[in-house]
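Customer escalation, tier 2.

The customer says the design service returned an amino acid string that "doesn't look like it belongs to this structure." They asked us to rerun it and document both sides in this ticket. The original structure tokens are below, unchanged.
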């Protein structure tokens, strides 16, 4: 019998499979980045911050008032954690001026900039990114995705040449023979509500590149549908097949196929039956959902019923990484997303 060792997820055929997140943490430690957590009003953030500091994953800043610290960090050892209160910060005036100038065309006034920076801390965190005072931001434990990403798109902005900003989850399913030893990328599960064919193609290509860099395995991309290779006819199916064509034009070297039902995408026997000759069917490790409803439901089903680790939503396409958390996240989830954010910064994802 094979007994799992510390830092390993499971053992198959006598081979220990190292936990994905431990590989990410090791990379983060090797080149530490400055990560900001702007939600000091949440106890989970402080608990995660202590773990991150103890594991030496990142140089951490938590944005909080003294009242936030006293209320939410009671009993925790905060040594090594930098705490910034925007109201008392010596950077505040500069950030007010810079944010006002940045948003002048949208009618921003200094008074409005000050209000945002001192009450909605994600704005202060994004200004830290813009001013090169930080390398990444993780938020969303007690804020919506829109509240987290709107300031990022306004202040940090998308990378030059990027068609759209999208979001994905890295899913790690224990003792799973599918995907890359149970590791998958699910996209878009957090941002694009109902992408058209062009957007879906961009999500597929960007997700393939993110998987390659983060997981260090060859991406095998399936664009999912309720249909497999013409088994059903519907405009929703047409959207996916058109996206496959566009994605192949954008990145002909990526193994990518569709439309595929989920079982045809990941189970070899089903893939061979439903899509014979496909280079992807039965082997996919990057799953692209046709819309946000499907993606969000899909990742939560796998997370809860398969007891999978779910890291994200991780954004791709922003000039510097700003990542969202599920509002149901645990401190351990926050630690994982911070480690991923640090590695994104290293790799320029």
């Amino acid at each position: 019998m094979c007994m799992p060792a510390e830092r390993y997820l499971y053992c198959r055929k006598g081979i220990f499979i190292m936990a994905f997140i431990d590989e990410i943490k090791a990379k983060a430690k090797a080149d530490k980045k400055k990560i900001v957590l702007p939600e000091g009003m949440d106890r989970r953030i402080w608990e995660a911050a202590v773990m991150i500091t103890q594991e030496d994953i990142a140089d951490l800043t938590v944005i909080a008032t003294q009242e936030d610290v006293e209320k939410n960090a009671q009993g925790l050892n905060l040594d090594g954690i930098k705490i910034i209160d925007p109201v008392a910060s010596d950077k505040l005036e500069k950030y007010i001026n810079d944010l006002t100038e940045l948003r002048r065309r949208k009618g921003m006034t200094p008074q409005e900039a000050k209000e945002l920076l001192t009450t909605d801390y994600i704005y202060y965190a994004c200004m830290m990114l813009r001013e090169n005072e930080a390398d990444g931001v993780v938020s969303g434990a007690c804020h919506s995705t829109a509240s987290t990403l709107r300031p990022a798109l306004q202040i940090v902005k998308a990378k030059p040449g990027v068609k759209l900003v999208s979001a994905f989850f890295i899913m790690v399913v224990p003792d799973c023979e599918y995907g890359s030893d149970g590791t998958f990328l699910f996209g878009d599960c957090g941002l694009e509500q109902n992408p058209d064919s062009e957007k879906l193609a961009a999500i597929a290509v960007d997700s393939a590149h993110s998987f390659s860099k983060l997981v260090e395995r060859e991406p095998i991309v399936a664009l999912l549908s309720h249909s497999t290779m013409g088994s059903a006819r519907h405009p929703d199916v047409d959207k996916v097949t058109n996206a496959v064509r566009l994605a192949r034009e954008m990145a002909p070297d990526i193994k990518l196929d569709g439309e595929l039902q989920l079982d045809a995408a990941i189970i070899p026997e089903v893939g061979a039956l439903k899509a014979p000759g496909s280079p992807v069917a039965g082997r996919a490790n990057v799953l692209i959902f046709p819309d946000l409803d499907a993606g969000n439901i899909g990742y939560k089903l796998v997370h809860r019923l398969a007891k999978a680790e779910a890291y994200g939503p991780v954004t791709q396409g922003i000039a510097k990484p700003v990542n969202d958390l599920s509002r149901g996240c645990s401190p351990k989830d926050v630690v994982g997303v911070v480690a991923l954010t640090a590695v994104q910064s290293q790799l320029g994802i």
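Tier 2 assessment: The sequence is consistent with the input. The domain at 20-157+320-347 is CATH 3.40.50.10950 (Rossmann fold). Confidence is low (pLDDT under 50) at residues 1-17. Sent an explanation to the customer and offered a walkthrough call.
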